[in-house]
Amino acid sequence: MTEPSAKPATASTVPSADTAPLSDAVQQALAVSLRGCDELLPQPDWVKKLQRAEATGQPLRIKLGLDPTAPDIHIGHTVVLNKMRQLQDLGHTVIFLIGDFTSMIGDPSGRNATRPPLTREQIEANAQTYYKQASLVLDPSKTEIRYNSEWSDPLGTRGLIQLSAKYTLARMLERDDFTKRFKANTPISLHELLYPLMQGYDSVALKSDLELGGTDQKFNLLVGRALQQEFGQEPQCILTMPLLEGLDGVEKMSKSKHNYIGITEEPNTMFAKVLSISDVQMWKWFTLLSFRPEGEIAALKAEVEGGRNPKDAKVMLAREITSRFHGAAAAEAAVEDFHRRAAGGVPDEIPEVALVGAPLAVGALLKQAGLAPSTSEALRLVEQGGVRIDGGVVSDKGLKLAAGVYVVQVGKRKFARVTLTA
């Protein structure tokens, strides 16, 4: 079995990290690496790699793999993308790896059941949008984009068997999710055992110096280190980033849990969603999503603890995130929209809805106008004082509206101009 072709790695003898003092540049790179991270393993090896890069002028190869299991990226994904951008800005080579091959297996990380593999058509459709969205964070001119089918498809059956011989079943079953499923007699399909192996083989193919991932990817990243050693390569270091809790402040951000912010969402919606997070959660988001210096964030936190309104800090965070994905002008417009709504004003542009059936009950009107998912939910919103018509709070669940034009507001962000006819 031959090693797949990739850009050659450069090795050079440099002073030992244990004996040589760290230069300012290496100290800065280490600080950037450690900001917000959960683990950097092994840190002494990473220091040596940074020293080598400084001595030789050869940038390090930093890998992030994402399987295109859904067409959209949310800001939870950008936690690792932000770290990639920070390391990219230090001059290192960033490899954005699209797992078009591994997506057909399905990542079992954190799963208590077999993940259904995607079809080739689903993968290709999702992959088309992935890099375009990631480029809103990464610098496209300094990013190497790769697909792991480049080396995984040519591997073939013989190569896969030879690769499998380099890792034991006992080590594979040390994985926490596999162990739990095995003890619970929950089925584990053989193809799932191939996923960490193939992700690790990506590191061999790319000769990566550092691989990034969420904390749930630690086992897979370590497999990459082990396989690189099997192939006679210098093993990569691994850097894991915390998983970002979503808008509920509890569960990991996920589209399936409806607690996410998509990076292509409308700027006003993105801005408002960031403002909806808790004051406590805000500081973790600052660390993981903001590019502000840590000292500046610490000073801002001290001001809030000293009495400054935490909403001021949250507006800063929301403006920065919205500006990153939509530009400064759109972010400022979102700020103005927020202040207008907070003052009870109506946005300049709201949906126009035409309904028939006057007189129409308020619950039915909200449902038909798309402002509530059901009549019962609409009535619950009325009961809670969350519905306004022409600026006045609706308190009567039995209200019926005659023919006319109404500005209807639900909560702080949902508006519609409803034209109701008989």
Automatic annotation (TrEMBL):
<dbReference type="GO" id="GO:0005524">
    <property type="term" value="F:ATP binding"/>
</dbReference>
<dbReference type="GO" id="GO:0003723">
    <property type="term" value="F:RNA binding"/>
</dbReference>
<feature type="domain" description="RNA-binding S4">
    <location>
        <begin position="360"/>
        <end position="421"/>
    </location>
</feature>
<keyword id="KW-0963">Cytoplasm</keyword>
<dbReference type="InterPro" id="IPR002942">
    <property type="entry name" value="S4_RNA-bd"/>
</dbReference>
<dbReference type="GO" id="GO:0005829">
    <property type="term" value="C:cytosol"/>
</dbReference>
<dbReference type="InterPro" id="IPR036986">
    <property type="entry name" value="S4_RNA-bd_sf"/>
</dbReference>
<keyword id="KW-0694">RNA-binding</keyword>
<keyword id="KW-0436">Ligase</keyword>
<keyword id="KW-0030">Aminoacyl-tRNA synthetase</keyword>
<dbReference type="InterPro" id="IPR024088">
    <property type="entry name" value="Tyr-tRNA-ligase_bac-type"/>
</dbReference>
<protein>
    <recommendedName>
        <fullName>Tyrosine--tRNA ligase</fullName>
        <ecNumber>6.1.1.1</ecNumber>
    </recommendedName>
</protein>
<comment type="subunit">
    <text>Homodimer.</text>
</comment>
<comment type="function">
    <text>Catalyzes the attachment of tyrosine to tRNA(Tyr) in a two-step reaction: tyrosine is first activated by ATP to form Tyr-AMP and then transferred to the acceptor end of tRNA(Tyr).</text>
</comment>
<dbReference type="InterPro" id="IPR014729">
    <property type="entry name" value="Rossmann-like_a/b/a_fold"/>
</dbReference>
<dbReference type="Pfam" id="PF01479">
    <property type="entry name" value="S4"/>
</dbReference>
<comment type="similarity">
    <text>Belongs to the class-I aminoacyl-tRNA synthetase family. TyrS type 2 subfamily.</text>
</comment>
<dbReference type="InterPro" id="IPR001412">
    <property type="entry name" value="aa-tRNA-synth_I_CS"/>
</dbReference>
<dbReference type="InterPro" id="IPR024108">
    <property type="entry name" value="Tyr-tRNA-ligase_bac_2"/>
</dbReference>
<dbReference type="Pfam" id="PF00579">
    <property type="entry name" value="tRNA-synt_1b"/>
</dbReference>
<feature type="binding site">
    <location>
        <position position="255"/>
    </location>
    <ligand>
        <name>ATP</name>
    </ligand>
</feature>
<dbReference type="GO" id="GO:0006437">
    <property type="term" value="P:tyrosyl-tRNA aminoacylation"/>
</dbReference>
<keyword id="KW-0547">Nucleotide-binding</keyword>
<keyword id="KW-0067">ATP-binding</keyword>
<dbReference type="GO" id="GO:0004831">
    <property type="term" value="F:tyrosine-tRNA ligase activity"/>
</dbReference>
<feature type="region of interest" description="Disordered">
    <location>
        <begin position="1"/>
        <end position="20"/>
    </location>
</feature>
<dbReference type="InterPro" id="IPR002305">
    <property type="entry name" value="aa-tRNA-synth_Ic"/>
</dbReference>
<feature type="short sequence motif" description="'HIGH' region">
    <location>
        <begin position="68"/>
        <end position="77"/>
    </location>
</feature>
<keyword id="KW-0648">Protein biosynthesis</keyword>
<dbReference type="InterPro" id="IPR002307">
    <property type="entry name" value="Tyr-tRNA-ligase"/>
</dbReference>
<feature type="short sequence motif" description="'KMSKS' region">
    <location>
        <begin position="252"/>
        <end position="256"/>
    </location>
</feature>
